[in-house]
Write a structure and sequence with these properties.
The structure is a homodimer of 425-residue chains.
Chain A (H helix, E strand, L loop, with lengths): L3 H27 L8 H13 L3 E6 L23 E7 L9 E6 L20 E2 L2 E3 L3 H20 L8 E6 L7 H8 L7 E3 L7 E5 L1 E10 L14 H23 L14 E8 L9 E10 L5 H16 L3 H5 L3 E3 L4 E2 L2 E2 L5 H14 L5 E4 L5 H7 L4 E3 L4 E2 L7 E3 H19 L3
Parallel strand pairs in A: 3-6, 3-7, 7-16, 8-15
Antiparallel strand pairs in A: 1-2, 2-6, 4-5, 5-18, 8-14, 9-11, 9-12, 9-13, 10-11, 17-18
Helix pairs in contact in A: 1-3, 1-10, 3-10, 5-6, 8-10
InterPro entries (chains A, B): ArgE/DapE, Bact_exopeptidase_dim_dom, Peptidase_M20, Peptidase_M20_dimer, Peptidase_M20A, YodQ-like
GO molecular function (chains A, B): hydrolase activity; metal ion binding
Enzyme class (chains A, B): hydrolase
Chain lengths: 425, 425
């Protein structure tokens, strides 16, 4: 637990810098860092960190041997060479304290129809204690928090005794390859903190995620021959219904999962993008659906993939079009395991103490039915990986916003955690 | 019935010009005259007709008062000023014989994935007695036939005694406004022949067509709240199913139609284009479906539109997303009546005689469950409108092709019809 005097100094520092932190977050939000378009933000971020005296490594996904790792995910529709990663390192003068990775993703998901937003999605507008915009909460607020937690230590005249890597990655929303790349690039530490917007809770476990693209294509039977199932759009609907049934089965199996057994229907299936056909008066010959499905940490990705294939194959029988035209399945993104943060780690104990001091309450835990990047550090590289950060609402929806009071508090609890984990001089 | 000697001269002329006719059709097919992109073909066609000595009127849909006519259809996604029409007129030296409109549409529907075609869709390739390509059959073959039927008369030294307008129009596949524009522009005649690919049959009646765009948009309920109906794509599927049920009702009513009562399910519903969502892992907030539905000639367009609105409204009740987010319906194209060619017209009698002479068999009749342009001339301007022409297969599908033997025969029967209807000197 940090020394109360140190905490007071950190609190004063966070307070002093908070206007700058809010401006920094607004600036982050103003970059429309959609998939494949993250480079301008990363270049700006790299300059910011270099200006703060970090040693900065800027590289792209084409610079690491992704394909060498079994947990790398397929990247479709995007060029790895355009996907920029930044690792900003502050090395301890002497190796002594524990090292730490602070990691955040700066890729955001599409904002949808702009007219549905109260404030412009890339405006970074502040109103009544909230900062609005796509990515404001998920998770540029966390990125601002980790940078300003470090700034607070410096402002307070505290120098960490362990090496610290401040990393901003891409691909969290589609594959996870950005996080994996930092490990393949060689960055390691004694613990990892990813400040996703958890509203000051610790993430005990998250489900896995699989992405797949269904492609229905073929020569349709003439409408004169049959009144249903002769049209690629209708056949895609038929496949979606088959996958809804498969999801019910998966949720039945999920009742046996040690982490998610008590959660009602933790497996979510989402047909997220659909496109098909060329003309209102022509029977559509093609339809594509981009889908996402979850899995519990105790399920294997390969087993769920086989289940998807079986469900699609079985659905062909009941459909005139599909019977003659086998649909294709493309694994076009996430093939992500779930992850459970084992209880009792020293890293979690130190974070809980810092949280308790700042919030005056216990750090509660949550289960997440969406994936995050902790799995790479925690599951494959034996690094305790804590998912804990600020909070808000509207992730992936309209009027996404982050709460500035929570941002300030978690910035402080993170600063206190860093001080206590690494030690300071 | 044409004089057998005249028919022989016409037959020889059609035969002599047939290589040129085939080349002319290939050239027509090589223009990718998709909606909004018809102008290059029309300009070429106008020059061709001017070169043959016709008086050519080239104008666009922005040049006629479309909105003044209650049967004009809404045009969405396309600029009327870019939609070029051509009327090529050959006037009789003295008004004496009956006048005639020959009309064909040169707009084509999208070709779909090119990889599904055996021959390039805009190649105009000839193989084993067939000419391949998008629009080759529907209905550039008919356009070639009407031009070369007229050429055959000239080649045979026969001059029609009535005025003849050879018209190529757009928008047949989407609104019908091209055909309507020729009437608003002032062109009239004692009969109209539209050589759609009917394989030498006369079209006794065609169904009407309505286009509409369903737009589902709103703030989705979070996936945590409900497991179905919280997603714009799933809600669009729900609407499609409601419209399938509405189609069953319409087909029940269609049993009372004097023309289509004996046809099984003459009303076809087609969801032809779908698009929705932005990200596999975000609940889609929007989905659009472009649809087409038919109606019998005895049904009113306005009644079917009301039925569609009622079906969509009723479907909202069973769907969490739609209950909170009313879908929009946009009438974005066809609002087309059906049409019945009344039996017993002199024009049909003359055509049947010409057909019988050329084919050595009676002209059979067909019922069409798709719309064509005859309704404007026949239903609103009291002009007997005959839909009769060459034939092939693959309209709106892959490997569309027209049969060259049928093209030659119908070119001759059309030439014989023109000679007999207008009279020649």
């Amino acid at each position: 637990m940090p020394d109360p005097a140190i905490l007071d100094r950190l609190r004063a520092a966070v307070e002093k810098n908070f206007e700058a932190e809010t401006a920094f977050l607004s600036e982050l939000v103003r970059f429309p860092s959609l998939r494949g378009r993250e480079a301008p933000l990363q270049d700006w971020f790299a300059r910011q960190m270099a200006g703060r005296g970090y040693s900065v490594d800027r590289y792209t996904l084409a610079d690491v041997p992704l394909e060498s790792h079994e947990k790398a995910a397929p990247m479709v529709d995007v060029d790895p060479a355009g996907s920029v990663q930044v690792v900003a390192t502050k090395r301890a003068k002497e190796a002594g304290g524990r090292s730490l990775i602070l990691q955040g993703h700066i890729d955001v998901v599409p904002e949808g129809p702009t007219s549905m937003w109260t404030h412009p999605p890339y405006g970074g507008v502040v109103r009544d204690g909230w900062l609005y915009g796509r990515g404001a909460n998920d998770m540029k607020a966390g990125v601002a928090a980790m940078v300003f937690a470090m700034d607070a230590l410096k402002e307070a005249g505290l120098t960490p005794k362990g090496d610290i890597h401040v990393q901003t990655v891409t691909e969290e929303e589609s594959t996870g390859n950005g996080a994996l790349s930092t490990l393949l690039r060689g960055y390691r530490a004694d613990a990892c903190l990813i400040p996703e917007p958890t509203s000051g809770t610790i993430t005990r476990a998250h489900t896995g995620t699989i992405w797949f693209r269904l492609r229905v294509r073929g020569v349709p039977v003439h409408v004169a021959v049959a009144d249903s199932g002769t049209n690629a759009i209708l056949s895609a609907m038929h496949l979606i219904q088959a996958l809804q049934k498969f999801t019910v089965e998966l949720n039945e199996k999920a009742k046996a999962d040690p982490s998610f057994g008590g959660v009602k229907n933790p497996i979510k299936f989402n047909p997220g993008i659909i496109r098909g056909g060329d003309w209102a008066s022509s029977t559509p010959s093609w339809c594509e659906v981009d889908c996402r499905i979850g899995l519990t940490p105790s399920m294997e990705v390969a087993d769920v993939q086989k289940g998807i294939e079986r469900a699609v194959e079985a659905a062909r029988e009941g459909d005139t079009f599909l019977a003659n035209n086998p649909p294709e399945i493309t694994w076009h993104g996430f093939v992500a395991d779930g992850y459970v943060l084992e209880e009792g780690s020293e890293a979690e104990r130190v974070l809980a103490a810092a949280h308790g001091q700042v919030f005056g309450a216990d750090m509660e835990e949550r289960l997440s039915t969406a994936v995050n990047d902790t799995r790479y550090y925690g599951r494959y590289y034996a690094t305790p990986a804590l998912c804990y950060g600020p909070g808000g609402e509207g992730n992936h929806g309209f009027d996404e916003r982050t709460n500035l009071e929570l941002l300030k508090k978690t910035t402080l609890s993170m600063a206190a955690f860093i001080a206590d984990w690494c030690g300071v001089e």
